[in-house]
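Quick review question:
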């Protein structure tokens, strides 16, 4: 069982049996026009591996939430279980769709004009789940972080993971693709520097990681190309990749991540291609 706090800013989930420990933190930003509560099944999978999840409801609050964390905001949450502490030396930033782009922008230090000055919070890793930077290369959202130059993200040696979907770049009826070519996972991967990892859930769509009971699926099916496979397998696969990546770079144990990369650990769904780049291979 997990503790969860929901308001207009946050969702925090940690496991009861680990009360009294210090936890790494995953900061997660939702996609455009969706709710953080639509991701709870995915995020609870991750939090069950002893991570504190902070999921602001408003993606535009990214820089403010970062500042709130560094000022000890979690410790002031009245519903935080006793003796639980956040390890702010181990914070990963992540997100889905527009939230994935927000995660990269925050890691890069690119902020909106109304945002507070960059805080001293240092991220240990960045992870984008089907990130999207706009509706087309000529209509990118601010801040415009894509430069269309290979390996151009200026993140020093910060580890990067990009997870894409195979159907996200396909339109549904008259609705344009939700993750169009030129501003989707492929370009984020192209601009990532090692150490970096790429995973493609080739038989699933842009919205297939949402909860079963979260969004109005009758609407989702009209605007988003979705996969024919079970969505719970998609969530399990994404959760497994996220956890393995966090274990590797926040926990120092690369065994499961390496198992996914060399395919000795088989995912519940088809993940192909899987690409890993380190400094030795670039």
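Suggested answer, residue by residue:
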């Amino acid at each position: 069982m997990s503790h969860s706090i929901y308001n207009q800013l946050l969702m925090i989930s940690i496991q009861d049996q680990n009360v009294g420990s210090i936890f790494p933190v995953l900061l997660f930003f939702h996609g455009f026009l969706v709710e953080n509560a639509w991701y709870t099944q995915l995020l609870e999978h991750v939090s069950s591996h002893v991570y504190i999840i902070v999921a602001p409801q408003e993606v535009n609050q990214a820089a403010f939430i970062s500042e709130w964390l560094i000022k000890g905001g979690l410790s002031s949450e009245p519903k935080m279980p006793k003796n639980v502490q956040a390890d702010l030396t181990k914070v990963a930033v992540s997100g889905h769709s527009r939230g994935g782009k927000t995660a990269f922008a925050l890691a890069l230090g690119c902020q909106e004009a109304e945002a507070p000055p960059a805080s001293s919070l240092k991220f240990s890793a960045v992870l984008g789940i089907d990130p999207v930077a706009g509706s087309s290369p000529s209509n990118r959202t601010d801040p415009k972080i894509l430069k269309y130059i290979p390996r151009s993200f200026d993140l020093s040696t910060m580890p990067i993971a990009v997870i894409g979907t195979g159907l996200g770049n396909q339109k549904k009826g008259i609705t344009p693709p939700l993750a169009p070519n030129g501003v989707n996972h492929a370009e984020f991967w192209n601009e990532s520097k090692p150490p970096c990892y790429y995973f493609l859930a080739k038989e699933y769509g842009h919205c297939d990681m949402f909860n079963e009971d979260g969004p109005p699926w009758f609407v989702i099916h009209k605007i988003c190309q979705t996969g024919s496979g079970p969505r719970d397998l998609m969530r399990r696969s994404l959760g497994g990749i996220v956890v393995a990546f966090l274990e590797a770079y926040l926990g120092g144990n690369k065994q499961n991540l390496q198992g996914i990369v060399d395919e000795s650990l088989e995912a519940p769904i088809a993940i192909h291609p899987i690409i890993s780049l380190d400094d030795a291979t670039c």
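Why it works: Confidence is low (pLDDT under 50) at residues 1-9. The first helix runs from residue 40 to 47.
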